[in-house]
Amino acid sequence: MKLTPDWLHQLETPFLLIDEARYQRNIDRLYQRVTNLGSVVRPHLKTLRSVAAASYLLKDHEHPATVSTLAEAEGFAAAGYRNLLYAVGIAPHKLPRVARLMQQGVDLHILLDTPEQAQAVTEFARQHDVIFSVFIEIDCDGHRGGIPPESEVLLQIAQQLEGKGAVVRGLLAHAGESYNCRSEEAIRAAARNECDAIHLAARRVRETGIACPILSIGATPTAHYAEELEGISEVRAGVFTTFDLVMHNVGVCQKQDIALSVVSTVIGHNAEKNWVFVDAGWMAMSRDRGTAAGPVDYGYGLVCDMQGNPLDVCLNTTNQEHGIIALPAGSSLSVQDFPVGSRVRILPNHACATAAMHQQYQVLQAEDDQPLSWSRIIGW
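Predicted structure:
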């Protein structure tokens, strides 16, 4: 395959590009690691939300997967996938959609962390003669939702659900604070804490006679640095497939591991200010500034050449449909290095947010120089 197939220079820009070789390598890296530790990856499909992309992650239709919207659950169910965890706290009005998927033979698990949600689940179950599979969220690091593992509310909710129109299928923990870690040891500590919290919660729930068989943990940083997964049924991670600049700042990946970029065309210059204008604005890159608080601020993305090699300049400013690459003083690059009509690839701060701006992705295949297109599931 040529370094840059002709189609990369012919498709309308901006477009989102997946490097298949990097994508597959990232998947293999985590799957092998988790398997060696005796657990299973339940991949979170929220980054790309694509049936075609998921085929690299799910070995068969029974392979466990995680989704972040019911639209995803419906899309993957239509493609034949049957073991789906909807890993966002359930809103009572969404229970009819959950029930419809269950009636289609989908083993769809829902997530909750309040007595009010539990009450809504049991009331709907009683009225409609269904039995829901429920995961209870455990707060392992003071981040976002979940119940502290030592809380009496945990036992209250478990007993409120079990045998009353629901089965407590498992507990779920997400070490969201690991995204703020800046050293390998800090990530390892977050991973240990994640496991310790869910083990404590499981012991307390099981002591009440509720089996609670599945212990589900995971965040991309902790999934890559956990050292001990004994008793952990599954590990969830999502952005590990493509990685991004936030994960690079955390220390989980190298720049050359990032498998997602936005291809953009140079549309002009301001030579006096050393600015290069491109046709990718925040509508193509998203407004996510996730690296702003990190060790390196990459603006709205890191600029690469069309082979994917970083040029060590950033997309500094974005408007709706155009962006500005401000070449820093002392840079070896000048605006003449970016001729009008030439193209660049821009690595994103947050792959999930950037992917959400595109309804289709173009795939640079490892063994074929023909274009391949993946469609995204949209909506909620």
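Summary: The chain has a mean pLDDT of 97.
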